[in-house]
Structures
1.
Amino acid sequence: MFQIAASIPPKWIDLAPGIRGLFRHGPSEAIVSARRHLRMVMEQDDRSDPEFAFVTGCVIWGLVEWEGVGAADGDGVADLTADNIVALLRQRPDVYDKLDRTYVQSIVDAAAEKKGSGRSPTGTSTEVPPFATPAATAPNAPIAKTSRAARPAKRSGRSSKAAPAN
């Protein structure tokens, strides 16, 4: 039975040394926001990277506070705006990758679980045991020669040439 959580508080994620963000939870809303952002970006420029736009849309929706991101003019912390978030993700591939692998992947996984196609934590189902012998314990293949010697082709007794007239 699915248990409804009253409220899941935002969570801090360390993005890079000295940079961290506070992200809210809400897979359904994040997916909707990411799709909306993706459509908007692709309508503006169809050469844009859809994966980058999707990740950016999730992050724009989920990020509610950040630390360690300085303003362009060097005066304090940068304002938390969609443009500044996109700039951070473009300028810091390590931050983009971390968010893609952690925050966005958790949203995508949660959406997959709702559809009944989430990943199994162990990689196999408990109802269906693995049927293949693991490679490390499988017996080795025979070393002896296994192919037969080539046989000469059988002759059918017919010739493709016309028979001589008598």
2.
Amino acid sequence: MGTSDVLDYRSYGTLEEIYARELTQLEAVGVTDPEVTSTGGNCYALTGGAGYAPDGRSLYLLATTNGGPALATGEPITSWAVGLYDTEGDSVALAMGEASVEALGDSPDALGCAVTRARTALHQYTGGAPAGKFALIGDQGVTWIPA
């Protein structure tokens, strides 16, 4: 049973229907097989294949809205956070990107920007990160986040 068979939070459709533009945007920026995925505890995120880290590790992307641990399901989307993770089960992001909808005009554009920022953080800052930290690039620039 897929996510679309069981979810109808806003009475407007399934999460795949609600986030169709964002899923299309993820494909447009090179994310493979984007989908809505359960992250546990009745929480959901957008996920997909994110290519490879500079050291060759396979990556996946996890995107959530409004600074929370899950997709917004009854409120306007104000921002996107995107983390890049090792597909071998690492629960700590290797890099992150954030973007506000207000700064970019609409939700798919903000999501695309957050993906680009996460990839930039991964490729430019991973090797030079302070011990125990990873880079997050947001609207205000680079921040070091404890791993």
3.
Amino acid sequence: MDERRLKYLYAALAVLFGLPSLVGGGAAATMLLLMGLGQFGHGTLASVTLMPLWGLSGIAGCLAWLWLSASYLMQGRAGLRVRPAWWRMLMVGGLAAMPPLGLALWWGIAVHAEGFNLLLLGPSMLVPAGMLVWLKRQA
């Protein structure tokens, strides 16, 4: 495919999968961060450390996805040649999206189909993020 069609495909994936996940996942990540910081001194060690780290990971993934998406849509594949820190942040955000993905799959299959709504809390952003990684590998 030529570069123009790849940009159109990526823009469609970003709108369909990325933006809903950015809103839902970004809000959930911010809530996790604030809840973890609010329990500082009162909660268990897991709630004081894991919740803020998970929230920061989600926020980092959202920011990296926004930066890399804007770079690709404005500059093409040349825009994906950025500092490795952005790719690491995207990877950390992808790792933060794995628990909601597992929970959505388990809940959607075993309990009820409404469990697939949990995919809007971050895992659906893995589709456009995966395409960004694929485009970077192709360049």
